[in-house]
Amino acid sequence: MADDEISLPKATMTRIIKERLPEDMKIAAEANEIIMRCCEEFVHMIAATANEVSEKEKKSTLTPEHILKSLEELGFTSYLDNLNAALEEWKEDKKEEKKAVKEKKAARNNANMSPEEMLALQQQLFQQAKERTLAAAPAAAPQPTAPAAAAPAAEQPVQQQQQQQQEPDAAVEAAEGAAV
């Protein structure tokens, strides 16, 4: 591929140039073209120098560090602070993206769980949270206790709880019969 065929996207470059100009100023098409050619030459120059840096290090892949070293060699040290900050921000964004992907994958795996497995996992997580809370609480502070009636219900499988909700309570039926 010849150097003539390689160019930056014209629409994007034009938009960037216009954004940098004051609102009341216009740019001639020829001036726009010259700026674009200068930008292309700048990119080529940095890429070539970065390639030389990577070859000196016997590396076959250009890294951000090679680009930063090439800018330094070319005398563009005033850009290094901003570029290092942008590089760190990019690395942090990548970490967050990887974390989000892992969380999404974990959520997808949990979606394949049966209701019984989800209930067991939920109870395990509640127990872990309770243990952490109790471990963090001062020894003198009163510790909350659950009502006695709530404990057996939490331990019952989901199907039994649903069955009990559907079966009418004998005491309620007797009270209704007496009222009639």
**Which residues sit in consecutive blocks of at least 5 with pLDDT less than 50?**
none
Report the order of strands and helices: HHHHHHHH
For the sheet with most strands, the description reads:
none
Helix percent reads over 70%
Q: What is the tally of helical segments?
A: 8
Shape: elongated
Beta fraction of the residues?
Answer: under 5%
- Which radius of gyration do the C-alpha atoms yield? 34 Å
Q: Write the CATH homologous superfamily of the domain at 3-75.
A: Histone, subunit A
| SS content category | mainly alpha
According to DSSP, the number of beta strands is 0
What is the fold-level CATH name, i.e. the topology of the domain at 3-75? Histone, subunit A
Mean pLDDT: 80
**Distance between the ends:** 95 Å
Could you characterize the architecture of this molecule?
The protein is mainly α and 180 residues long. Among the domains are: 73 residues, Histone, subunit A; 48 residues. 71% of the residues lie in helices and 0% in strands. It contains eight helices and no strands. α3 runs antiparallel to α4. The chain is elongated. The relative contact order is 0.04. The model has no long low-confidence stretch (mean pLDDT 80).
